Every structure is written in structure tokens, then in C-alpha cells.
Amino acid sequence: MTEFWEIVIAFFLIISGIFGFVGSFGMIKLKDPMSRLHAPTKATTLGVGGVLIASILHSLALEHRLSLHELLITLFLFLTAPVTALFIAKWHIHRHETPESLPDAGEDGKWATHAVPPEEDAPDQTAT
Amino acid sequence: MKLLRRVFPHPHLTILLTIVWVLLANAPSLNSVVFGLILGIVIPFITQPYWPDRPILRNWPMVVEYILVVLWDIVVANFTVARIILFKRDADRQPNWVCIPLELRSPEAITVLAGTITMTPGTVSCDLSAQGHNLLVHCLDAPDPDAVRDEIKHRYERRLKEIFE
């Protein structure tokens, strides 16, 4: 029985290794910054998820105790990863996109990053 | 009833904090449950001024369904994106911006939707429109932006609308 569980745990570790690798490889292969942003989301979902499932199974099957604080790692990743991705995306829109290069924002006219009152924008320009 | 609301301004947060504390301790003992409960009562009470309204979840079975759908989509999308990264030439890829008109109005629901879109490989939510009526999404490979928009609206937004509104 132990061997069976070891194979299952190894399977999840390999899955997570593969997706972690693909995520890092994507950072090299994809050329534009916005596409590069997609690569880390892979590493944080199945990449980390595989290790966490393997960890839960390991403590359950081989150490015979229930360990669930891996679920917390998932929770905190799902809370923080979208925020960092949003910050990087906002930076990109701020520096490299114009209202014309983005799709139409519907009835609101502008996307939030571009809809800055002029007086807030002015000191930024003098600083750089 | 009013007193109960004063003491427990966010009952869901109380339960969540207790569960998180027990998980952090990683040993379900009476000790950690009691201390988690104390934290779960004190923290919502102190942070009450920052959360004037509580989001109301209307449809609990739908919450479970939503989580399962998202987890399944994450697994499927991981394989799709892995294929794009490994086997598709960079020149053939069609990265695209997609504008998603939102029917959701509650800030919590829009936050959950944007987070879901980012965590699903292949799409990253990038910006809201000035008044929060549209969501800007970047797709890694989307030959047909309209299909992406319809899928997000149908799979996620429809369910979130039932949960939050």
C-alpha cells in the first residue's frame, strides 16, 4: 500500500515540476511583457497545487496524520497573485498603452488607468 | 438581535478566521479552536469601521459549484496554455485585449471575477473602466475575442450574479 501512495505522490510532484518548468520557460519564450505575465499564473496554480496535494497525501498516507495548512497556502496565493498581476498590468498600461491602443471602454469612455485628473498627472511628468 | 449584530458584525468572517487559525495551528485541538474563536470575534469587531456593509451571499450551493467549476477550468486551461507555450510558434500566437461589459455591480463580486480571470491561465484581468462598468482582459492566445468574452460571461459572471446579487 505504501508503494502505491508513493507512486501517487511522485505523480503529483512530477506534474507540478512540469508546470513550474513550463511557466518559467514561458517567461523566456514569450516576447511581449503582457504575454509574459501569463506564465507565472501557471506556476502558481497547477505548479504549486501539485506540490500541495502531494504534501497533503504524504502526511495522510505515510505519516498517518491530517495536515491541511496547505489549503491556506492555496488561499493566500489566490488572494495575492491576482493583485500583483493587476499591478504589473496597470504599470504596463500606464507606460506603454494609449487609450487608442486598447479596446473601447464602452459607455465609460476611458479605462481607469488613463482616467487620471490632469493635476495628479503633472508632478509625475516633471519627476521623470 | 441588534446586540448580536453589534458583537458579530461579520459572522462569515468570524467563521473564516476561526478556520484559518485552526489550519495555521495544523492540529485541531480545543486550545486552537477557542483562541481562533476569540480572534474571530475580536478582529471583525475592531475592523468594523472599515467594512460598513457586509456582502450577502445568497446562494450557498452555487458557491460550491463556482469553486468546483473554477478549479476544473484552471486544470484544463493549464494544459491548453502549456501547449501554446511549448508547441506554438511565437509568431502564430494572437495575443488580444478583450473588453468584458459587466453586469455585476457589487465591488466584491467584481473583485472575485477579476481574481478568477487572472488565476485561470491564458487570461489576465488588467483594468476596470473609469466607472467600473467594463473589465479589460488580456488573452495569451485568442483568435476569437468574442468567444472569450461570451465564455467568461456565461461561466463565471452568470454564477457570481446568482451568488452576490
UniProtKB/TrEMBL annotation, chain A:
This is Na+/H+ antiporter subunit G. Residues 99-128 are annotated as: Disordered. Keywords: Membrane, Transmembrane, Transmembrane helix. The keyword Membrane applies. The chain crosses the membrane at residues 6-28, 40-62, 68-89. Signal peptide: none annotated. InterPro entries: PhaG_MnhG_YufB. Residues 118-128 have a biased composition (Acidic residues).
TrEMBL record, chain B:
Pfam families: MNHE (PF01899). The chain crosses the membrane at residues 21-46, 66-86. InterPro entries: Cation_antiport_E (IPR002758). Keywords: Cell membrane, Membrane, Transmembrane, Transmembrane helix. It is found in: Cell membrane. Signal peptide: none annotated. It is a multi-pass membrane protein. Belongs to the CPA3 antiporters (TC 2.A.63) subunit E family. This is Na+/H+ antiporter subunit E.
